[in-house]
């Protein structure tokens, strides 16, 4: 071989070496994705969201190292339909998931399932993911089995459920042990805290009912304070588990290439919380940590929907977003870039639980449109009295009701919880009235705002093929003029 030929071959070899491994190194590995969901957790009850009473050091530290979203609204204040939206990037109405006990139809793919088809090891673990129907036995369970409606064992690689904290953490470690070498993973890990019934088992330090600050719309009684203190205790206990999860990821060398999200499935089962379309029912904590991608210590006030999670996770993994998804990816926001933002997010309320519709806790039909500053709520069944979800049988609510019946409850709270009928429409200025106490509907100063929100909700309900009557009635037919005699 001539010297010239040798030089050419050497140059080609060097070029191949450089182009091969260098390209592989320059292209970032697909991230692992871990979604950690609390159950019934309102955003305002986390330290990094401004609450000075609750102890959440692990979530607070994660927010300091990542990004906190202040206005993440789930699509419904209920577990099942909300989780359906988080998983699919679509609204519960669009998915036909407005009935609490419904299994997710097989044809609606969830984002971990899509990631699995692209090489991810995918799973759900912990507290039930709620999307295979609520009935194990009985008439509903028989139908589910007959028509093969339970689908998640087919969709994902790892499907486990557990009720106890220790078992949930054990499943988390078991999932990590099961991930094949070299594969990225995606996991939704579900916790029970701070879901009712409330307790403080396993905590060395608890919240003092006398020292905590109650939201302005909570009745201030000893039983209410004790109940709320236990709720904060459960939030703190969830935070302890978050710390355990982060430590496990770090120990395994996985933290730097894992996109971690700490979020809630819906708001707390508290006054004007779960089961309602007020902020305490819809706005949940949403903290994202992704080293070298998400800037540390940033916050965002952009309004986001639960529908937006799935398309964002797909885009973060470099996978095209399904055309069926109505959610919008907020990946540019995550990376600190300018991005077009939503003008509105929408939410709905339907059946809750699997029982018969004996009150508004079991069955209500409400819709809402939320903009940067305002919220419009449409109560189609406003003639039904308010009935709290998950705590109507608790002593503290019975005491509040007895106080109202005896005329001992402050008038403003009696009007808030016991006015019947409830207004069909409510309009709130979320900037000046964050507790949503002053209904501005039909206020002369807000005519244009009111009309704009009604029109946006009306349009959304039409496009969703919503079964609830539309909020803007048809125009009255013009009267015919009498013929001149």
Describe what this molecule looks like in 3D.
With about 475 residues, the protein is α/β, with parallel strands linked by helices. The chain has 2 domains: about 30-335, Alkaline Phosphatase, subunit A (3-Layer(aba) Sandwich); about 350-385 and about 420-465, Arylsulfatase, C-terminal domain (2-Layer Sandwich). It is built from 15 helices and 14 strands. The protein has helices spanning about 5-25, 55-65, 80-90, 90-95, 110-115, 140-145, 150-155, 165-180, 220-250, 280, 310-315, 330-335, 395-405, 410-420, 445-465, and strands spanning about 30-40, 65-70, 70-75, 120-125, 160, 185-190, 260-265, 285-290, 300, 305, 345-350, 365-370, 375-380, 425-430. An 8-stranded mixed beta sheet has the order 5-4-6-1-7-8-2-9. It has a 4-stranded antiparallel beta sheet with strand order 11-12-13-14, covered by helices on one side. A hairpin with a 3-residue loop joins strand 12 (about 365-370) and strand 13. It is globular, with a radius of gyration of 25 Å. Residues about 1-25 have low confidence and may be disordered.
Summarize the structure.
With 485 residues, the protein is of the alpha/beta class. 34% of the residues lie in helices and 14% in strands. It has 15 helices and 14 strands.
Output the keywords:
4-stranded antiparallel beta sheet; Alkaline Phosphatase, subunit A; 485 residues; Arylsulfatase, C-terminal domain; disordered N terminus; 15 helices
The CATH topology label of the largest domain is Alkaline Phosphatase, subunit A
Residues in helix, %: 25-40%
Number of alpha- plus pi-helical segments: 15
Broad CATH class of the largest domain: Alpha Beta
């Amino acid at each position: 071989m001539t010297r010239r030929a040798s030089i050419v071959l050497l140059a080609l070899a060097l070029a191949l070496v450089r182009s091969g491994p260098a390209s592989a190194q320059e292209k970032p590995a697909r991230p692992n994705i871990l979604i950690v969901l609390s159950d019934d957790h309102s955003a305002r009850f986390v330290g990094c969201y401004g609450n000075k009473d609750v102890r959440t050091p692990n979530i607070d530290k994660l927010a300091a190292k990542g990004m906190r979203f202040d206005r993440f609204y789930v699509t419904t204040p209920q577990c099942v339909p909300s989780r359906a939206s988080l998983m699919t990037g679509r609204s519960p109405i669009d998915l036909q998931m407005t009935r609490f006990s419904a299994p997710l139809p097989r044809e609606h793919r969830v984002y971990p399932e899509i990631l699995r088809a692209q090489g991810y090891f995918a799973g759900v673990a912990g507290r039930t993911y709620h999307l295979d129907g609520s009935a194990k036995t009985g008439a509903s369970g028989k139908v589910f089995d007959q028509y093969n409606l339970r689908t998640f064992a087919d969709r994902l690689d790892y499907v486990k459920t557990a009720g106890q904290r220790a078992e949930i953490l054990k499943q988390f470690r078991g999932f990590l042990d099961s991930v094949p070498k070299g594969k990225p993973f995606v996991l939704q890990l579900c916790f029970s805290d701070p879901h009712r019934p409330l307790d403080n088992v396993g905590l060395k330090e608890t919240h003092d009912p006398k020292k905590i600050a109650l939201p302005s719309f909570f009745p201030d009684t000893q039983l209410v304070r004790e109940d709320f203190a236990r709720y904060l205790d459960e939030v703190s206990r969830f935070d302890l588990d978050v710390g355990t999860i982060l430590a496990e990821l770090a120990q395994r060398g996985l933290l730097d290439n894992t996109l971690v999200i700490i979020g809630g499935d819906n708001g707390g089962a508290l006054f004007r919380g779960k089961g309602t379309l007020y902020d305490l029912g819809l706005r949940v904590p949403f903290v994202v940590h992704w080293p070298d991608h998400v800037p540390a210590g940033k916050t965002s006030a952009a309004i986001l929907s639960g529908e937006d999670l799935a398309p964002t996770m797909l885009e973060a993994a470099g996978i095209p977003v399904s055309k069926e998804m109505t959610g919008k990816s907020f990946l540019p926001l995550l990376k600190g870039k300018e991005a077009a933002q939503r003008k509105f997010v929408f939410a709905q309320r339907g059946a809750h639980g699997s029982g018969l519709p004996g009150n508004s806790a079991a069955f209500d039909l409400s819709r809402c449109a939320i903009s940067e500053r305002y919220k419009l709520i449409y109560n189609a069944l406003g003639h039904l009295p308010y009935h709290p979800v998950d705590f109507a049988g608790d002593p503290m609510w019975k005491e509040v009701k007895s106080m109202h019946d005896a005329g001992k409850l402050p008038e403003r709270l009696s009007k808030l919880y016991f006015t019947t009928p409830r207004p069909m429409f409510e309009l709130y200025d979320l900037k000046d009235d964050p507790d949503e106490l002053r209904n501005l509907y039909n206020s002369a100063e807000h005519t244009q705002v009111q009309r704009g929100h009604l029109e946006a909700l009306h349009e959304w309900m039409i496009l969703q093929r919503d079964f609830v009557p539309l909020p803007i009635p048809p125009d009255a037919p013009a009267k015919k003029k009498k013929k001149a005699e």
